[in-house]
Amino acid sequence: MSLIRQLWIAVVLMMSIAFISSFSISTYKAKAYFEEQLLLKNIDNAGSLALTLSQIEKDPVMLELLIAAQFDTGHYQRIELLDPEGQPLQQKIYQGEDPSGVPQWFQRIAALDIEPGVAQVQDGWFQYGTLYVESHTRFAYQALWTTTRDLLLWFLLVALAAGSLGTLILKLITRPLDDVVQQAEAIGGRRFILSREPRTLEFGRVVKAMNILSDRIRLMLDSERKRLEEMRYKNQHDALTGLANREYFFTQLDTRLDSDDQDSQHALVLIRVRHLATLNQQLGHRQTDALLTGVAEAIQATLQELPDKFTQADAGRLNGSDFALLLTDASDLAAVSEGLLHNLVALSAQYEQGPQLPLAASYFSPADNRASLMMKLDTLLAQAEQREMTCSEITLATQSTLRFHNADEWRMVLTEALMRERVRAEHYPVVALDGSLIHREVMMRMELQGQLHTAGFFIPWARRLGMLPELDVAMVAYQLKQLRDRSITGPLAINLSAETLADLIAVNRLQSELQQAGNLAEQLSFEVSERCVVQHPQVFREFCRQIKPLGCQVGLERAGADFARITNLQELGLDYIKVDHAFVAGLAGNISNQNFLRGLATLGHSIGLQVIADGVREAELRDLLESLGLDAWTGPAVTET
């Protein structure tokens, strides 16, 4: 029960007690006063009437007329004249209805006990009779009722005024309590935020204690994140350029080649610094290092210039002179190659010797294997080297011939599929290491012109056309409909793109769909790529603020490489993270990745996160994952029991 409601109850109780007390006291005193006054009136009226009757002839008609005239004034309940034997000579008793309108229950509560006025009527020296006069009490009851009613009205007005004023005062006093409650709820949701300490002493002590807890958690997380990042960076990156080293880059490449999404289209680019040994002698060690660093910077600059041409980009240094660029869901390799070549030409022009920086690029799909792909790229690179200049060789031979020809055709087929509700889904289990089901991953499929395609077929063009938010909203609506129809069972985990999170209209539509779904919303989890959270932290934080109150869970996918770069991790309220397959592949023989996953699990558990291994292809890894502290796994080797 809220404090405001408790205040109103207290005001009502206090005013009720005050009213009952005032009513009792005032009614008792008024009742005694009226009884006294009516008794005196009865005595006076009886005496004056008896004196008048004693002075006239005792003709019965005259007596009746005089008594009737007195009674008819309307102020009497009874006027009665009895002879010495007690027999009535004249009797007038009011028999009409009570016109005062005073309720009977009130008359019973405030009953008046008034003795009648008594006087003797004389006939000369003899007693003619005894006169009894009793005044009507309706006027006294009416006065009591009016006083009580006015008293009740005033008490009600005072109670309303006191309650309203108390509510305003209480809101002012407890305003800092809202921050206290918000921080307590955040901590309960594993979001360790800091709040401003209120001036109220008691609230200030509570907030200070929670701030100390949140700050300790933050310091602990920062320390652990830095340690993990140092360990990961040292094991996976080239010390000079900061790009991925050969082992880690090929792990990323193998992950794309091992993908179950056969319709996906990726690309690989190789860049070579020709005659590196000669350049080292001509330029010197320092300038040669600057050249190699410049190549890495040219690659990163190209990726920043063309972010809509791919879903994810991973750059690496394969050896002293060779660099590689892996583009996931590549939609326009020609544009990326052209932009990269332009930056490399600009870099080469900065040196007198004009170092040659040829590049080769090619699409590939999960149907390829690493050896044949690298052989193809080496052949293209050899052709580029023969020109003895900074140039490029590109092949689009593996680009699927089933794809539509231009943006207009893609927009048309995607729009048609959305209008006809052709979004479909496949589900893959995420299982705890003890065998229980955590949720099912939702993989988007779409029926385009009669054929069902995996996400890799249409996602690159949907991103290029800005239609990803529409696809994500359609997928959520489709899954809620299936849950409503009980054609599937939850819980389910749906991946959302960075474009969807940044689209306010799409997020509002998601929120509306979830609100209309009621309790079904609690069966949905939403996953966002780790890089999206790093690049758009405010957007992700706002998304969590809107979605979490609806009962949905929120997690990270492809986590690990940039996990340490997520700022204020303790404030996000995440429920789980899925470790990128690149850290799981070949885990049994990779001690550095084992140490990293052990530290990541410890860090995640400290703020209540479940840590899930993604893309597991070997069932034998279960015991190793459990020993490292992970909670669950998913991938081709994982089945739902």
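The above is record 1. Record 2 follows with the same two-line structure.
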Amino acid sequence: MKWLLRILFLLVAVFGLIIGALLLMPGDKLATILAEQVRAQTGRDLKLTGDVNLSFWPVLGMETGPVTFGNAPWAGPEPMLSAESLAVGVDASALISGDLRIKRVIAENPVLRLELSDGRGNWELSAPETVAPASTTSGAVPQGQQGEVTLDHLKLTNARLLYIENGATKFDFANVDLAASWPDIAAPLKVQAQMAAPGGAVDVDLSIQDLPAYASGVVTPLDLTLTAPGGDFAFDGRVNLAGEMAGSLRAETTSTERMLAAFGQAGMGVPLGLGRAADVSAQMTYTQDGRISLRNMVAQLDDNRLTGEADIVISDPPQITARLDAGDLDLSRFNDGAATGGASQASPATPQNEGWSTAPIDASALALANGKIRLKANSIAVPGLTLGPSDLTLNLDRSRAVLQMNPATLFSGQLNGQVVANNRNGLSVGGNLTADGINVQQALSTLGGIERLSGTGSGSFEFLGVGQTEDQIMRSLSGKGRVDVGRGVISGFDLDRLMGRGGGEAGTTAFNSLSASFNIDQGVLRNDDLLMSLDNFRADGSGRVGIGNRDIDYLFTPVALRANSGNGIAVPVRIVGPWSNPSIRPDLTKVIEAAAEGKAKELEDEAKQKVFEKVGNELDTTITDSDQIEDAIKNKLEDELNKGLLKLFGGN
């Protein structure tokens, strides 16, 4: 019995001496041994700085100071992993059986660089190739065969994560805390990450259902949720090693501006009606060339609901192609201040009823994207007016937007043509439109505050304005156009009463047709060929309309067609003053001048007639005009002269 106890004591002593030797071995010597083993197993360089502490059972572990782990030979000189400290532990009993069960990997301030090129990932580890022996036993296990690999706990604190694909950095996130676990070969890989962001933090939860299949390039189920200040995203679908994805996507925001700020887009205001609060769902497909396809899309943007599909190319700026349908689209508060408390676009120093706004127009949104968006809607309400059923196409190209109407329903009629906003070198707006069936009173009231003219019209309009404010644009307007209106009414004066005929509705003038052409220069519209047809009158007009100054100076001349034996009586009407309250009155100066000219002619004719009668009596003849007076006097003188000569020469 004594010899058995001595043998056991000797074995314990030898084992203790071996363990003690390892524990007492200098840190740099342990680091060298570990680095050689890692290189033998992975082909990568491992550099350990500072003391290396080991544990053996039940966890074979290591703790070290600053560490770097080499990259794949094709991935460049930067290490795949570096950290200020690293702790690694594996299950010792599982390791004896051939499995690698990683109990923990903990790193402080690490930098993890993941690279993918031509289908190869720098995270794929394999031992260096060795020359096979000349002969092997038929039952030997192949050299490269490995057991199961699992991960119980991975923790990276204050990490920097980079993902590089084919030489291009896809993302670079700093100040990231990351935790991951893959406790069993059949269990999903679960990853949680948190990153500091303006206004809070971004949290990511990711689950890959079959990690071995994913690592081998097989398409694998993926669940992903992202929560950020102002909203969250959720994806449920499938993914492959190249990062391509297909599945169900949902994005919900309570403050889109806060979410944009969290991802580095601070200061980007979202117009009310376009998703300050949003709920978007779709079937999404993402390909490795940066293309996103959204199908069966439903987007609730504030109080507006849109459906359709979209294709997006991730670039700077993004390229968007979309086809959307909306019911009643309300953008009437598009210019309202931002949700964060921004001021309205209207200038407080320039009330809208006194002139155009002098507030600067922010047209930076024209640079947010390029592409083509087609929209069909039952109605579209924008500031100041509402469109009916419309088919619109918006083309965006480098800060230039072209809105094509195919057609648009406006003022109870239809508009065809296009409107352009260009902010490449300062803001300019222009258009080329044709209109049919337009309610003239609605159009003039909405666009210029003019309420007195009503009817249904058609026409064409070309225009161009330049400026950074509404006031500058209106004062710079140039263009031309034509208007044709059918039966209508002018309120504010009664042409029948003015012409002394009475009848009709008091204070109004009904007309059968109206036509006019015009030119615009420096915000002033001029017209010289207005023609209005009424039952008993014809009216002509000419003058100026100050679009920039919002005033008018126009002479309207009606002519009574049945008066004065059909020659007509003209009573001009002058319209002068601001659009909101112009003065409409007969131009009495013109009337008096015309009447005075008529009376003078009447007196002249009466005097002439009396002269003709007096001279006729004296000359004993009938005279009807001034030319006959001279002839009658000549004839009388000849008669008297002949009588005198006859007496002189003794004749009868």
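The radius of gyration is 47 Å.
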